[in-house]
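Researcher: Good morning. I'm working through a list of sequences from a screen, and I'd like to move beyond sequence-only analysis. For each chain I'm collecting a predicted structure so we can compare shapes side by side. This is the next one on the list. No need for commentary yet; just the structure.
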Amino acid sequence: MPHPLRQQIEKLTPLTDTEFEYILTHFTYKKLKKHQFLIQEGESVLNDYFVTKGCLKAYHTDESGKEYILQFALEDWWITDYQAYFKETPATISVDCIEECEVLSLSLYNREKLCSEMHKIEHFFRKKSNAGYVALQQRILSLLNSSAKERYEQLLNLNPKLLQKVPKTLIAAYLGVSRETLSRFNSSSNV
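Model: Good morning. Structure tokens for this chain:
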């Protein structure tokens, strides 16, 4: 079975074995335990992470301690604090593991190096960034224009695997609803 990173890149551009082996040398493997932090608010963010196993959440905690979940990441997804990563500033969000995880980390230096050396990788990251911008815009518009129930149904349709892996309290926080409201959605949807 091909390497998960290779599978992801090849969704957008084909690679030779030599090209993939070279790309992989720029990544570092990391294994994390459940609840372990990958990124903590205020710290430096040196890497972007490709998830090969597990599930993570990216979130901001306000002064009162309330958590606002921005993103989940399952296998084959990328996650980091992109503002801190690209601008080389302290993290404004935290990322931690919902379950045991394995990730491949890519430093900004190695990303830029690969992009300057290989048009295929520059193309890959440009396409991934564009897809990320579209997804972010859709999420913002959904928060502005959709009811909580509609947001839940969208999440259910787009990411059914996420709803199986992530505790309902976290799904509720992501949708901006209470756990009780989410339970009503579940019972009315027969999920």
